[in-house]
Amino acid sequence: MKDNRFAVIMAGGRGERFWPLSTAARPKQVLSLVGGRPMLAQAVDRLKGFIPPERILIITSASLVDVSREAVPELPPANVIGEPCGRDTAAACALGAAVVKARCAEGTFCILTADHVIRKIDRFLQILEHGFTVAERGESLVTIGIKPTFPSTGFGYIDCGEVLSDGDVRVFKARRFVEKPDAKTAETYLQSGHYLWNSGMFIWKADTLLAALRQFEKPVYDMAAAMLPVVDTPAFEAGLTTEYNRLGRISIDYAVMEKAPNIVTAAGDFEWYDVGSWPALEDHFEKDADGNVIVGDGVMLDSAGNVVVSGNRLTALIGVKDLVVVHAEKATLICPKSRAQDVKQMVQLLARKEQYADVL
What we know:
The protein is α/β, with parallel strands linked by helices and 360 residues long. The protein has 2 domains: 5-274, Spore Coat Polysaccharide Biosynthesis Protein SpsA, Chain A, CATH 3.90.550; 278-359, no CATH class. It contains 10 helices and 15 strands.
């Protein structure tokens, strides 16, 4: 393991689409939705033997620092960093760069997320290793793109150009990043064969990212520059609050990746799943003869295609199809699978009603 390599895992999301099991105090990254362990812990587990715990950072919300530390007790407490307010992914990446550079002047780090399910870990680490090598030997911003398996309208895409490496890991010059397309455009991308899904995973030298931010998103760079001298000092938290309050919200894609000319993409051919809503559990649990996924205790009568999560009670369904049914301690969710993306809208509706504060 090279001692200049770090990992930064972004874990600041609220996981609203997994309400009522996911709440503001216990969002999806600290729940064991898939795989038997908290998703954040699984993200750390994947790096065993590749990057040691002392060089793995978690960037989360300040309110989630304690619960995140509980999920990954093997990490030093100082490596779980709480943002005072949400400023999207550009700020989180820049903060990661400041901490990495403060601890290692020649540091290189990957950006990973806490809400992906990855299988074929050996292949994932092989591609990550190649990405680090590319980032370390030049001034490239390296992304990991995922070969599309269907015309998704839920992911951004990377338009791949010139082949830079055609060995065991294929690396391309990235022509452009494109936002989530409509269905017709997504089908065009899939058929073309030269678009990859934007996984949100990146590898870069801290200096390379900071240089890009300085050129394309100066306010975010200024925050990182201000934080660099106070990393691991008593002035860190107060400084972070001051600096974050000066920033607007902007993603790393908008801030840098859609503008920078020095982006390359490593093609990821491991199994990758963005667990974004309740129906996504169908990819990770066995179905019964009628296509139902039952997590916990459930009995179906003339019912098909349902997703049921019922941890501490029996859920019985009669004569229904394609529903999501989720029992939590203080609330129950029932909706058609086709409306599962609207769970976030329900959370927003409940947030406007004071009597439901304790279920959020």
